Amino acid sequence: MLPRMTRSAPADPAPIDDEAEATGRFAAFQSPTFRLLMGAGMAMQLGQWIQRVALLWVVYEITGSAIALSVLGFLSNVFVIVLSPFAGIASDRFGARRVLLFAAVGQAAGAGILAVAIFTDRASLPLLYAIGATFGIGQALNQPTRNLLVYDTVGRRLLRNGLALNAMTGSTMRVLGPSVGGVIIARWGGGFAFAIQAVLLFAAVGLVWALKVETRRDTARGNVWRELLGGVAHLRENGAVRLSVLMNLLTALLVYPYLAFMPVFVRENIGGGEAELGYLLSAVGVGSLIGLWYVAAGRGGIRSMLWAGVIYVLLVLAFTQATHFPLAFGILVVAGVVHSVFSTLNQALVQLNASEQYRARVMGIYSMSQGAEPIGTLSLGPLIAVFGVTMAMGTYMGLAAAVMLSTAVVVTLRGRRPAAA
């Protein structure tokens, strides 16, 4: 039995499977609340990308082990599986703003602790793992709540535009963060990088505090597990939302884990160091700034999302075989163009195709599917240790490309069939 809601729910929207009417590319910025949310998101994401490159490099510098990186990747992402489904329920009960505020405070505190530990020579591998887990907990909470807040600040009509602008600012931070992080580590060390991250995250806390948006929807305080099962039931009945979740699961399991092993790739395949690591982690963000113009105009449906995903995975497959830095960087820039279309449309379609009463819970489940990344990371590490980074990564990307391509073909052919007489 599905949970009783405190208000009647609107009918499920028709699946979004075609091009939407174009909007002005900066229409969502007309909302002052949305602008505040974007400022907070930029500070969070810049800090998180600096943290990511710093944490990866410090762990690899201490251990020189792909296995250690796989453990870090697992701990940094496993909480997405555990906590994300409840992030939607918590957002309905307490408000997405409060959940986001709690997550930002926790991440800022973790960055501050790690900076002090490194400056005082008390950093250890267990501490690095613990802080990585802390960041993972914060990410499990703030990722779905930020997307919910985009909807709440701009509405359904401008959702694609809002998410694209949100992703565009995030891509800008992805360009700046790893590059800046790599330079900071090379010149001043990891402690300084984590100190900067802490300052940025505390700035984000202030901006989130200033948000004036009420997102609590559930005042009945029903059984948490029943509410969660209601979201699962809606996912089972809604094929369009289910497809988006499955595509997110596929890329999280087989594609995104390559990021955790970039230090290995940089050192073994192209003979680079901290700076090259930062530049490569920035490359996808450079391309994303181009691809997001398509989504920001309010365009794109299910088929656009799927074919962008196919091209993205094939480009990452090509990247795993590169042995020269300029080629590797160029491939990732192009990959960023199509990845921005794939990921932003996928996030938008989940909320556009879900019924309003289940939207927050479905977004929690969608974010939970991202939790497949630590599983893929944990399994990829031993394969890299045995077969090498090129073969192991290439195998994962090949499997992902086969599944994504077959799905895109089937959905495209079904969409072109003439209606029955």
Account of the 3D structure:
- The protein has one domain (about 25-415): MFS general substrate transporter like domains (Growth Hormone, Chain: A).
- It has 16 helices and no strands.
- It has about 425 residues and is mostly helical.
List the keywords.
mainly alpha, 421 residues, Growth Hormone, Chain: A, disordered N terminus
Number of helices: 16
CATH superfamily: MFS general substrate transporter like domains
Query: N-to-C SSE series?
Result: HHHHHHHHHHHHHHHH
| Percent helix | over 70%
| CA-CA gap between termini | 37 Å
In short, what is this structure?
With 421 residues, the protein is mostly helical. It has helices spanning 32-63, 66-77, 79-94, 96-119, 125-154, 159-188, 190-210, 224-237, 239-254, 262-269, 274-296, 302-320, 325-353, 359-369, 372-387, 389-416.
